[in-house]
Amino acid sequence: MAKIKLEYIWLDGYQPVANLRSKTKIIDGEYGSLKLADLPVWGFDGSSTRQAEGKSSDCLLKPVALYPDCTRTNAYLVMSEVLLPNGQPHPTNSRATIPDDEGTWFGFEQEYFFFKNGKPLGFPDDGFPAPQGPYYTGVGYSNVGSIARELTEKHIDICLAAGINIEGINAEVAKGQWEFQIFGKGSKSAADQMWVARYILVRLCEAYGVDVEFHCKPIRGVYNAPLDWNGSGMHSNFSTKHMREVGGKDYFDRLMAAFSKYMDEHIAVYGPENHLRLTGLHETQSIDKFSFGVADRGASVRVPHSFINSGYKGYLEDRRPNSAADPYLVAGRILKTILTVPTK
Fold first, then answer.
1. Measured distance CA(151)–CA(281) in Å, rounded
2. Whole-model pTM?
């Protein structure tokens, strides 16, 4: 028997963007053989996380996903749902709103900025760096610095050791901006992995005095001027078993009609202040319009050439979710819209 550290992770009740919270529980067990079903439901003070009142503050944490934590000895990361004392999902439990459909696959592209001392990493003390251009997939100290590269490399290793399906990283268009990609089979599994990957990155940055900024437009400039910097998205690639194996133009047309019909419902959960990012500029469609197009990065939904060439089969990319969006809500809304479209 060994002492095992369990880091319970959950989302608090802050709005419009929930914060990650975590605390450690120590249990006795055999490290390496621990299973999700072995983990106890645990409690916390919901009055300190905007999830309960002080006169009735108990909330519960139900483990939903388990990941080895290579940064600690005999440790796991435990993604958890928040429950009411009666065992029902808490009103802030966005994971519980996702319809069950294990045949849905999601690939999330998480953009973000590293921030230090109140400004993006690599920005000079006064003024701004050179305009955008060399930073995307950039190489060299002047383009990406040194701390950012070290952080992103460590983030990859910790995620892989945890069994999180991180598929890649790259420096992004703006100075101090980066992206990582997560793929998961099953809506809840994909979103679980994204939240834990975010947690790993934020926790990793603590030791460097660096914050991770998920706001969709942290640098607000003027169009066509040196201060006009890209925003951050969480482009969401998705497919269902029917889309991958059957598809067809008729189904695709009906699916896009449904996405257009529910445009407002999608925007409502695609992240706060998205109007700052979805302007029709910087490879975005305007927030009040819906469009789709083949290989069109300025459309609401980008249709890959491979989708058309395969007979309208495969995956699609919703480019509207922003970097601060809750992947549970994004996956849930996309799946709900898909389920309104008959497959025959």
1. 30
2. 0.96
Beta bridge partners of 317: 237, 302
Range of the domain at 50: 2-92
Do 130 and 35 share a structural domain? no
Domain containing 310 — which CATH number? 3.30.590.10
pLDDT of res. 200: 98
How far apart, in Å, do the first and last CA atoms of the chain sit? 55
Residue 188, CA distances (Å) to 96, 185, 324 in order:
9, 8, 18
Contacts of 73 (CB under 8 A, 6+ apart): 5
Which of 32, 65, 92 terminates a domain? The answer is: 92
Residues 179, 197 contacting (CB under 8 angstroms): no
**pLDDT by residue (tens digit) across 109-150?**
999 999 999 999 999 988 889 989 999 999 999 999 889 999
Q: In what helix (H) or strand (E) does residue 59 lie, and over which residues does it extend?
A: strand 58-68
Asked if residue 7 lies in contact with residue 75, where contact means CB atoms within 8 angstroms, the answer is yes
- Note whether residue 343 is domain-resident: no
Whether residue 21 contacts residue 48, with contact meaning beta carbons closer than 8 Å, is answered with: no
